[in-house]
Amino acid sequence: MNFRSTSRNSILAVAVLTISVASSFVSAQNPRPHPEPPYAHAAWMNKDLSPDERADLVMKELTLDEKIDFLHGQGMPGWGKPKPNYYLGNGGAGFVLGIERLGIPFIQMSDAAYGVRSSAMNGRYSTALPSNLGAAASWDTESACDYGALIGRELRAQGYNMTLGGGVNVTREPRNGRTFEYQGEDPILAGTLVGNRIKCEQAQHVIGDIKHYAVNDQESGRNEVDSIIDKRSMRESDLLAFEIGISVGNPQAVMCSYNAINGDYACENKYTLTDVLKKDWGFKGFVLSDWGGTHSTIKASAAGLDNEEPGENFYGDAYKKAVEDGKISQAELDDHVHRVLRAEFAAGLVDNPIQKSVVDVMGGLETAQHIEENSIVLLKNSNHILPLDRNSIKSIAVIGDHADMGMISGGGSAQVDPPGGTNPPWLAHVWFPTSPQKAISAKIPPASIKFNSGADPAAAAALARTCDVAIVFVDQWTSEGMDLKNLSLPDNQDALIAAVAAANPKTVVVLETGTAVKMPWLDQVGAVAEAWYSGSRGAEAVANVLFGDVNPSGKLPMTFPRSEADLPHPTVVQPPPHSQGASPVMRTEGAKASFSVHYDEGLKVGYKWYDAEKKPVLFPFGFGLSYTTFAYSDLHVTPGASTNVTFKVTNTGSRAGIEIAEIYAALPASAQEPPKRLVGWSRVSLAPGESKEVSVSIDPKYLSIFDVDGNKWKLVPGSYSFMVGGSSQDLPLSKAVSLN
Ligand code: BGC
Question: Ligand 1: does its nearest atom lie under 6 Å from the Cβ of 164?
Fold first, then answer.
């Protein structure tokens, strides 16, 4: 049997960057005079007015047909019959018409989970950042901001003014093929990071989007699955991530998801769209459907869906007729239109028209590398095998599929076009041109660096035996539109690692994964580093960590379980036969979800599950090693309007390093919560021997529970235990205080 399936559709992008330059050039000496547009002095162009006031003024000028145009997209390249306006798009997943005579621009949308997707088909270039899950391992709000700002800049450079991305579905199901697009299993960490990403992305004058709202936690049967979950659990986990993301990032768009929630499809779910999002959270932007996620006209409109994407099955002629027949009121129509227009003003689209420009390739590569360096998680390092010693090592075996040329990325609508490549097919395996072999050679030029693909484990082991160190790069490819059957590395890679480790105990494993993996070979290898999907400069970042030029600081944003049997759902619940599959399809009004997943684990998501069920794990949430060591002391907890937690962290080793110090709280027993929850953290940079006092103020909501009857957050009076340390299972400090 082949080690790597030959049917696998693999693409390796060539390392040549083809960058298109702006097609027209206007001489600086002789600028072409711009005639003033007719709307230049229109009342709504006054920047001193609020986005609401400006949108209201535009509304007065609109015909019914123009209003309807704001409520739907104009089709998607490659899906269905091309629409008449198709040629006006920019090659992205969708666009909404503007009104030229009023100076209201088109909304040009591109997917942009870990970089701008539709670039090469546009003759352009995008930076691939580390996967969203990977970047979440940095626990770093500054990295999240850099991530968003880069995407925002590159969107505009390529002619887009709206992102589709900012995924923040908490990891209830680690086999979900889109886990790499999200920010892990904790709502406070995930929401804070996605919020910072969106804040900085939108500052570039693109509409920021948060998705997929909500409880869209598996891809199997995603168009037909009903997520059954009690309200309290939803508000305290899945929805809390959105609540925080929206409050921090203020995105002007929310994408509702494909699945149903407690009986109603997410894009026609009054509870999630109107009661929670628009009323409780005061969201003023617009809700757009996931592509083909609209199921009705009147029901969806009443429930709070503002915009159908990518076409107009329900929000075009059918919507107009419903208004004319009095089945949808003028006020309801106007509210939806107002929200789209308002978003264009609020995100700066009207005042800052897009001008295509050249992407800052080198700047992007630097950012991608820096974020990856903050995101790599060192999981094992026995006998200080890492960092590799440049003085003593004479030979290294670099082993693994494509490890001579590139590192893998995640698929689906998140897929960033690789430089020099063309738009890859939907489920292609794409390796970015960042070569582990070359990056390692560059670190230690005198040493002999030999490559083996690992296709034949015996040959790889034979090479490893002759070298001082073996570094095995293994990958687990995941994508939208599929779930993993299990958390094993595919394609016999476990056997490859075991064979190499048996031949050379100085074996280092570098994981390129989209979610957790099992490691049956863990005891046999010297070191393990989780590099995630590492982006355009992954190999350079990995090499910096392996050789100690960067001291790793990442911590797991999700638990790595021991076995699938330990998960809340031992197998992924599958749709009935003849389901619609994962691709967007035309919906039939009134259709119901055909099967359901019962999230009976409720509040117990991720580490909360393993804690409550007392299940040992492979690596706990929040875990990650450094080349130095840290000690914790002097915990003080001061209750107040927001509780203040202070403590000291000391670098007790001989290298500078960054420690992510984590704060957890156990609520009073009467709150009936899982044993503990993350309530805060701080990234502390310390020189050898240095100590710093850390002070974190805890948002009262993070200590509260959601009271469903009262429809509000509530602090349960009683004794709260605060625990501080370096992972969810290593919390040396603790203190109980009474909160009222
Ligand atoms: C995905 C969305 C994506 C959209 C447009 C859908 O299949 O679920 O995340 O933004 O396609 O490409």
Answer: yes
Q: Which of 247, 248, 253, 245 is nearest to 349 (CA)?
A: 253
**Number of structural domains the chain divides into:** 3
Regarding whether 307 and 390 lie in a shared domain, the answer is no
State if residue 93 touches ligand 1 by the CB under 6 angstroms criterion: yes
Residue nearest to atom 11 of ligand 1 (CA): 291
Query: What is the Cα–Cα distance from 473 to 4, expressed in whole angstroms?
Result: 14
| 396 close to 447: Cβ distance less than 8 angstroms | yes
Residue 309, ligand 1, Cβ within 6 A: no
Give the model confidence (pLDDT) of 388-414 as tens digits.
Answer: 999 999 999 999 999 999 999 999 999
pTM: 0.95
Same-domain pairing of 330 and 389: no
What pLDDT does residue 522 have? Answer: 98
Is the same domain home to 340 and 381?
A: no
Among 203, 609, 582, 285, residue whose Cα is nearest residue 426: 582
The answer to whether residue 290 is catalytic is: yes
In terms of residue numbers, what domain contains 461?
376-558
Q: What is the pLDDT of residues 579-635, one digit of tens each?
A: 766 555 557 788 889 999 999 999 999 999 999 999 999 999 999 999 999 999 999
pLDDT tens-digit series, residues 667-689: 999 999 999 999 999 999 999 99
Same domain assignment for residues 498 and 539: yes
Cα–Cα distance measured from residue 188 to residue 473, given in angstroms and rounded to the nearest whole number: 32
Residue 312 sits in the same domain as residue 403: no
Q: 449 C-alpha vs ligand 1 centroid, how far in Å? A: 41
Assess whether 330 and 222 both reside in one domain.
yes
